[in-house]
Structure to design on (641 residues):
C-alpha cells in the first residue's frame, strides 16, 4: 500500500480556483493536459478513486493475469513456478480428467437448478409478504435470517438435519411412512440435498430483491388488472411478473456467481477438502488440487475455467447495465 | 425497499389496510390460508436453527435418544457442550474480530472514497464507465481465480520481517496472517463497497456540493465537510454488510492461515473442523460451536436487520 502514497501526493493539487487559473495560464502542464482530456476534476479527484482502484486492480485483475501465467506452467509441489516453459498442457489434462468433467457437470447442475429454484421460491415469498400482511417485519426478518449466517454455520445445521439416524429430515420421513434416506452418503442425491440446503439459505435474499421490485410497481397496475377482471394468479403472471425483469436479472447473476463458488458450504459439511461423493464442484476441486495435492498449475487452470464461466454470466450483465445507462 | 414504511401493527398499518382493500379485497378464508402458508414457511426457515439449538444442550446420549427437534428432558440436559465449544472457539472469536473489524472499516472508507471520486467529481462519464465496470466486475470474481497468486504473493512479502517490532512485544508471529487477512479482505471488499456507495451518492443532492465547489472548496474539503457527514446511513449499511461477509468467509482464512491449530486461527476455521474425529461426529458440540461462531453476526442482524436487507438487496 505504501506505493500508493506517491500517487496521492502527486495528484493533490491546491484548491479549485487556483487550479483553474493555473491551467489557463500554463496549458502545457501535464495535469492540465490530463484534465483537458478527461474532465476538469480528473486529477484532483484521483486522490479518492485511484488508491482503491489500484488496490482492487492489483489484487483482482493483477492476480487473475498472474493466475493465467501460472496455469501455463507445470508448477507443482514446493518451490516456485518456472515461467520459461509455457504451454496449455494443464488445460488438456483437465479435459482428460474424468474428475474435472464430473465437477464441471455438477457445477452446471448446481448453477441452473439452484438459481431457478431460489428465484421461484423467492418470488413466491415476496408475493406472499407483499399481500399487505400483519407482522410483515417479523416474517421478513426470519425469512432472511439464514442469509446472515456463515456457510460454515449453516453447513453444521444441515449436516445434522440430514443425519441418517437422528436428523430431522429422516425422522419426518419415517413418521409419514417413508424410509430413511442417506442424503449425504448417496452420490445420486447428495447434490440435490445440497441444492435444497442452499435454497434454504438464499430464498430470503431472492425475496428481498423481488420485494423491492414489487414495491416499485405503481398500485394502479394492480388496480387496472383488477378492473379488467383478471384473477389474482393471472394478474401476477401477466402484469406484475413481467415488470420484475430487472430484479430477476440482478438476483440471478448474484445467485449464479454464488453457485460457482459454493466452496465454504461443501468444505464445512465434511470438514475437509474432499466433498461427499457426487457433490464435487469446480470450486472445491480447484482448492483441493492446490492446497491438498499441491498441483498449483493444474489448480490455476481449473480456476481460469471457473473464472471464464463467471465471466460468461457477468459479462452480459455488465453489458445490459451499460446499455441501460447504469454504468 | 426502504421507501416503503415498514409498519407492523398499530394504527398506521390499519389505515393502510383500509386504503388498500381495493388492491387486495380479501375473503376471510383466503386470509387464513395466507397466514397458514406464511407460518408454515416460517417453520421451514426456523427448523434447522431450532433443531441445532435444542441439540446443543443435550448430552451425547440425549442426542441419540430424543427427537432432534424436541427440547431435552432434564436427565439429558447439559451445558457442557457449550463450555467445550467456547473453550475451543474463544481465541478464534478474538482473532476473527482482530481482522474483521479493521478490514470492514477500511474497505468501507475506501469504497466511499472511490464512489465519491467517480460520481460527484466532474470528469467525463465515458472515462468513468470503464473504471466503474472494473469495480462492478470485481464483485463477481470467484475467489478461486485469485487464490494461487494470492498465496504466492503473501509468501513473497516479507511480512514476518516487516512486523519485527510487533513480535518484539511478545505477540506470536502467526499473527502476521491477521495482517494478510486485513489487506486481502480490504482489497476484495472495495468493489462491493464502491458500488453500494455509488448508488447512494448518485441520489445525493448536488446543489450543495456545486455551491461549495463554486466557492472554491477543494474536492477533499467537499468530501470532509459535506459528503462524509451525509454518508452516515450508507456507512451503516456497508459496515454491516461487510462485517457479516468478512466474519463469515472461510476460503481466505483457510488459504492464508491454513491450520486451525494456529494461535491466529479465526473462528470459522476452527468451527469447520470442530466435533469431527475418527470416532464419529459430536453433533451437540458442532451445534454449540455453530451458535458461538454465529453470535456476532446474529447480533448484528437482529439489531440492524433493515440495513442488512438494504445491503444485500442492492
Amino acid at each position: 500500500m505504501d506505493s500508493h502514497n506517491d500517487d496521492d501526493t502527486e495528484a493533490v493539487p491546491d484548491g479549485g480556483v487556483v487550479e483553474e487559473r493555473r491551467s489557463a495560464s500554463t496549458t502545457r502542464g501535464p495535469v492540465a493536459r490530463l484534465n483537458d482530456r478527461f474532465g476538469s476534476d480528473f486529477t484532483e479527484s484521483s486522490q479518492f478513486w485511484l488508491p482503491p482502484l489500484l488496490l482492487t486492480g492489483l489484487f483482482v485483475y493483477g492476480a487473475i493475469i498472474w493466475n493465467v501465467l501460472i496455469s501455463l506452467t507445470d508448477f507443482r509441489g514446493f518451490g516456485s513456478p518456472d515461467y520459461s516453459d509455457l504451454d496449455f498442457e494443464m488445460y488438456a489434462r483437465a479435459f482428460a480428467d474424468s474428475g474435472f468433467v464430473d465437477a464441471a457437470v455438477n457445477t452446471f447442475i448446481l448453477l441452473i437448478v439452484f438459481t431457478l429454484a431460489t428465484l421461484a421460491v423467492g418470488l413466491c415469498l415476496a408475493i406472499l409478504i407483499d399481500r399487505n400482511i400483519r407482522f410483515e417485519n417479523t416474517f421478513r426478518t426470519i425469512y432472511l435470517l439464514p442469509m446472515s449466517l456463515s456457510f460454515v454455520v449453516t453447513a453444521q445445521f444441515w449436516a445434522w438435519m440430514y443425519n441418517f439416524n437422528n436428523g430431522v429430515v429422516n425422522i419426518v420421513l419415517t413418521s409419514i411412512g417413508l424410509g430413511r434416506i442417506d442424503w449425504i452418503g448417496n452420490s445420486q442425491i447428495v447434490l440435490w440435498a445440497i441444492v435444497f440446503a442452499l435454497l434454504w439459505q438464499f430464498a430470503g435474499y431472492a425475496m428481498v430483491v423481488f420485494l423491492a421490485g414489487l414495491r416499485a410497481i405503481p398500485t394502479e397496475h394492480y388496480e387496472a388488472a383488477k378492473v379488467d377482471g383478471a384473477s389474482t394468479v393471472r394478474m401476477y403472471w401477466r402484469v406484475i411478473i413481467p415488470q420484475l425483469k430487472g430484479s430477476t436479472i440482478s438476483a440471478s447473476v448474484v445467485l449464479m456467481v454464488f453457485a460457482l463458488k459454493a466452496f465454504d458450504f461443501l468444505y464445512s459439511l465434511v470438514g475437509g477438502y474432499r466433498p461427499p461423493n457426487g457433490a464435487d464442484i469446480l470450486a472445491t476441486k480447484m482448492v483441493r488440487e492446490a492446497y491438498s495435492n499441491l498441483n498449483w498449475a493444474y489448480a490455476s487452470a481449473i480456476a481460469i475455467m471457473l473464472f471464464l464461466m463467471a465471466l460468461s454470466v457477468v459479462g452480459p450483465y455488465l453489458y445490459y447495465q451499460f446499455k441501460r445507462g447504469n454504468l | 425497499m426502504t421507501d416503503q414504511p415498514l409498519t407492523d401493527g398499530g394504527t398506521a398499518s390499519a389505515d393502510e389496510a383500509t386504503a388498500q382493500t381495493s388492491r387486495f379485497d380479501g375473503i376471510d378464508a383466503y386470509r387464513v390460508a395466507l397466514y397458514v402458508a406464511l407460518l408454515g414457511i416460517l417453520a421451514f426457515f426456523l427448523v434447522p436453527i431450532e433443531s441445532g439449538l435444542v441439540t446443543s444442550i443435550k448430552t451425547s446420549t440425549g442426542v441419540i435418544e430424543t427427537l432432534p427437534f424436541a427440547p431435552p428432558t432434564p436427565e439429558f440436559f447439559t451445558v457442557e457442550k457449550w463450555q467445550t465449544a467456547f473453550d475451543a472457539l474463544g481465541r478464534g472469536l478474538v482473532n476473527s474480530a482482530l481482522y474483521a473489524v479493521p478490514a470492514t472499516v477500511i474497505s468501507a472508507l475506501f469504497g466511499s472514497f472511490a464512489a465519491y471520486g467517480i460520481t460527484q467529481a466532474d470528469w467525463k462519464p465515458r472515462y468513468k464507465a470503464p473504471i466503474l465496470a472494473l469495480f462492478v466486475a470485481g464483485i463477481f470474481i470467484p475467489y478461486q481465480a485469485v487464490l494461487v497468486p494470492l498465496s504466492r504473493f503473501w509468501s513473497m512479502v516479507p511480512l514476518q520481517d516487516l512486523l519485527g517490532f510487533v513480535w518484539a512485544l511478545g505477540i506470536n508471529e502467526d499473527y502476521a496472517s491477521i495482517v494478510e487477512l486485513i489487506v486481502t479482505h480490504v482489497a476484495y471488499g472495495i468493489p462491493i463497497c464502491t458500488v453500494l456507495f455509488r448508488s447512494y451518492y448518485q441520489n445525493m443532492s448536488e446543489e450543495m456540493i456545486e455551491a461549495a465547489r463554486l466557492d472554491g472548496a477543494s474536492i477533499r474539503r467537499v468530501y470532509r465537510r459535506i459528503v462524509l457527514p451525509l454518508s452516515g446511513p450508507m456507512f451503516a449499511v456497508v459496515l454491516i454488510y461487510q462485517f457479516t461477509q468478512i466474519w463469515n468467509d472461510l476460503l481466505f482464512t483457510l488459504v492464508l492461515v491454513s491450520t486451525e491449530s494456529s494461535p491466529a486461527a479465526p473462528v470459522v476455521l476452527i468451527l469447520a473442523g470442530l466435533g469431527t474425529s475418527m470416532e464419529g461426529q459430536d453433533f451437540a458440540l458442532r451445534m454449540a460451536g455453530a451458535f458461538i461462531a454465529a453470535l456476532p453476526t446474529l447480533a448484528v442482524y437482529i439489531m440492524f436487520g433493515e440495513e442488512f436487507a438494504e445491503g444485500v438487496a442492492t
Remarks:
- Chain A touches chain B through 120 residues (CB under 8 Å).
- Residues 98-129 of chain A form the longest helix (32 residues).
- Confidence is low (pLDDT under 50) at residues 1-26 of chain A.
- Chain A has 16 helices and no strands.
